[in-house]
Amino acid sequence: MRCPAGIEPLQLREKEGLALINGTDGMLGQLCLAITDLRAAAKVADIATAMSVEGLNGSLVPFAEDLQALRPHPGQAAAAENIRTVAAGSGILDAAHAEFTQNHVQDAYSVRCAPQVAGGFRDTIEHATTVADRELAAAVDNPVVTKDGRVVSNGNFHGAPVAYVLDFLAVVTADLASISERRTDRFLDPARNRGLNPFLAFDPGVDSGHMIAQYTQAGIVAELKRLAVPSSADSIPSSAMQEDHVSLGWSGARKLRRAVDGLQRVLAIEILTAARAIDMREVDASGGAAAALATLREKVEGPGSDRFLAPEIEETVQLVKAGAFVDAVEKAVGELK
């Protein structure tokens, strides 16, 4: 009997049922899904950073190619190039350059060091990809049937290699979200946002602006830090001490899935906030930021008096998850790294 998609049902043979439900294979599937989502999130983070640099009247100088080459991590170079590409030709930064040079030495870490953090995030994804590629080529049966017909007990089913990178990805996911939240917080403080209203409020003293949006970010980041606690460092013996050391990689996979969702939400709030700041500057943004802003404004209104923020945050989250910001920016400025 054929399924509606025309796919012949798989007739399982010996050991194939176990292969489909084995814990290591499940962890690997979750790892592959996370890698795909986190690669997309890396581009979103660079877009958000570029928009924040513009919205905060910052400087692109620290992202210069020659400065980044002094510390030759490939992920760092890619992140910095993306930020430069998205923010290129910004009227906001051109207008603010003289004031920045006269009154400021440098931007805060959360802005100036963005490529270093996003770069480490990217390089960790590549390490995880290497592990996933090896695991996809692996046989994790126990016992295993060798080419010469031997049936041999072995330990290839142990999930340690996959569990480690699942935990590693949860750590860098939490940190990328953390630096994003710090940039968002700068927009809300008139002592640090370089001429914008407190909390980006339309009517300061009456409206709360994006105060609650940053609260939301802070709560998510706090949860991400808890999810970054490694599962693979734990082990509880079972099966009368025969299975006396396990990877607990499924726990790592489950918490990483929650972490991916949290990161997407934190980045969405940074974009939502940076977009409001860019609109309030009332100066032409870069081509990349303008493309992201136009995409957002199809779903979310521009600055105005206080509104219920939850629906606007959710609309922005869905744009992040659908890849809409990346698609729009790449159409405007070319493919990002």
Automatic annotation (TrEMBL):
Enzyme kind, highest EC tier: lyase
Domain of life the protein comes from: Bacteria
Pfam families from the UniProt entry: Lyase_aromatic
Residues making up the signal peptide according to the UniProt record: none
Alphabetically ordered keywords of this record: Lyase
EC number: 4.3.1.3
This protein's record includes keyword Phosphoprotein: no
Alphabetized CDD domains for the sequence: PAL-HAL (cd00332)
Gene Ontology molecular function terms on file: histidine ammonia-lyase activity
Protein name, as recorded: Histidine ammonia-lyase
The species this protein was found in: Corynebacterium massiliense DSM 45435
Primary gene name: hutH2
